[in-house]
Amino acid sequence: MKNKWLCFVVVLIGVLSCGVTFGESPALPSGEYLFDSIRKSRQAIRSGQVRVKTSVTEGNVTKPDWQWTISFDDPKKRADILRNGYTDTSCYDCYGNTTRMFYSTMPTPSGRKFALTFTDGFDKEQGVDYIPEPRWFGFIPMDLSNTQHFSPALMYNTADQSQKKLLTVVADIRLNKPCWRVNYVVDSIDHYIWLDQSNINRVVCVEGHFKSGDILFVDQVVPEGDLFGDQKIWFPGKLHYKRTENNIVTRSSEEVIEVISLNESLPADTFSPKTIVKPDTPVAWHLDRDRPFPEGELVWDGEKIVVVDHFSKMMKETPRIGIANIVLMLLGLVLIFFGLGLRLIKRYRQQNLKL
Question: What ranges in 81-189 are assigned the alpha helix state H?
Answer without folding.
Answer: 144-147, 152-155, 161-164
